[in-house]
């Protein structure tokens, strides 16, 4: 089944795409108290700053003093990680994933954001906060951030304060389909001026309304954690990371649940359950994502469809082409022709 995705209406004109290099990501670091890491790039490539990481659009909007709305529509070519620095301010964020996937960690909790999912995040400074975007996918997402300082000066946002007082956390958030569609159109449109600010403020207030409706200070323990964020023991985390590293390093191998369970020192049924809890998807859904992400990179480098299909573990190019089209919406040959 093709992952859920929210597309703008046909009348919406896409924003102009631009190439984003390591140097571009560095500018965001200073502005948002972040550091970026690029696992597949050498230190030399990172220091030069000219290597392209993604192509697309990142839009920033401050519809009012208390709110920061950021929309991103990126084709990701290099896997990148975002880490909050020690001087990052306390804040509450609402994240809506429209397309693609992202892995997020806050302290000892982790989750995978998938198309259509929403997340309420409270960062209280005492915890580590990071996100990981895998290469070979299109990522469309909207992030609404409210700083702790803004909450203290706007009585409408006071209900968010207990989230930070509880030392932060992650909670799933159900965002209505109509609002997700409106966010997708806002992300695509090139509106300017006061009209654009009013539209952004309206969307931001709707997101806040849903977050506040989902949250009540007396009901915090009942607010469900997103799939994959249930705490695991340190031993389980270490063993699950061993399994995931094996899948990341050798996506084209013929993995079986039994051999992976042996690697993780647990039974097949236990691995199946704990992996889904830790990463928000089944082992073989995760493996398929890694295979197709690798395939996208190889095709962009100009390798043939048949070669790529074999390298990423597909016996038949037709099966690979079907899976690739379902994931990215284009044929492998089209992705290969777009190499740059």
UniProtKB/TrEMBL annotation:
The keyword Transcription regulation applies. The keyword Phosphoprotein does not apply. Keywords: DNA-binding, Transcription, Transcription regulation. SMART domains: HTH_ARAC. It holds the Pfam family HTH_18. Residues 241-338 form the HTH araC/xylS-type domain. PANTHER family: REGULATORY PROTEIN PCHR. This is Helix-turn-helix transcriptional regulator.
């Amino acid at each position: 089944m093709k992952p859920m995705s929210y597309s703008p209406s046909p009348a919406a004109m896409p924003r102009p795409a631009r190439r984003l290099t390591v140097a571009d990501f560095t500018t965001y670091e200073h502005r948002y108290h972040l550091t970026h890491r690029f696992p597949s790039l050498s230190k030399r490539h990172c220091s030069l700053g000219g290597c392209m990481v993604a192509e697309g659009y990142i839009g920033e909007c401050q519809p009012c003093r208390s709110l920061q709305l950021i929309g991103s529509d990126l084709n990701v070519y290099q896997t990148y990680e975002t880490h909050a620095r020690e001087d990052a301010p306390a804040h509450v964020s609402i994240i809506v994933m429209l397309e693609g996937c992202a892995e997020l960690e806050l302290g000892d909790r982790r989750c995978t954001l998938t198309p259509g999912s929403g997340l309420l995040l409270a960062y209280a400074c005492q915890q580590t906060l990071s996100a990981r975007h895998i290469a070979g996918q299109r990522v469309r997402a909207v992030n609404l951030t409210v700083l702790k300082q803004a909450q203290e000066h706007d009585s409408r946002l006071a209900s968010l304060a207990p989230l930070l007082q509880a030392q932060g956390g992650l909670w799933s958030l159900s965002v209505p389909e109509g609002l997700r569609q409106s966010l997708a159109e806002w992300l695509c449109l090139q509106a300017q001026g006061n009209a654009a600010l009013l539209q952004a403020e309206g969307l931001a207030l709707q997101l806040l309304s849903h977050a506040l409706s989902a949250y009540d200070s007396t009901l915090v323990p009942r607010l469900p954690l997103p799939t994959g964020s249930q705490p695991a023991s340190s031993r389980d985390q270490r063993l699950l990371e061993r399994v995931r590293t094996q899948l990341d390093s050798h996506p084209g191998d013929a993995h079986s649940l039994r051999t992976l369970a042996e690697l993780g020192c647990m039974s097949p049924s236990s691995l199946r359950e704990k992996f889904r809890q830790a990463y928000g998807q089944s082992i073989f859904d995760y493996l398929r994502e890694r295979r197709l992400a690798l395939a996208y990179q190889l095709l962009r480098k100009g390798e043939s469809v048949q070669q790529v299909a074999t390298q990423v573990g597909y016996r038949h190019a037709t099966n690979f082409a079907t899976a690739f089209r379902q994931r990215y919406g284009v044929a492998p040959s089209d992705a290969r022709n777009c190499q740059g």
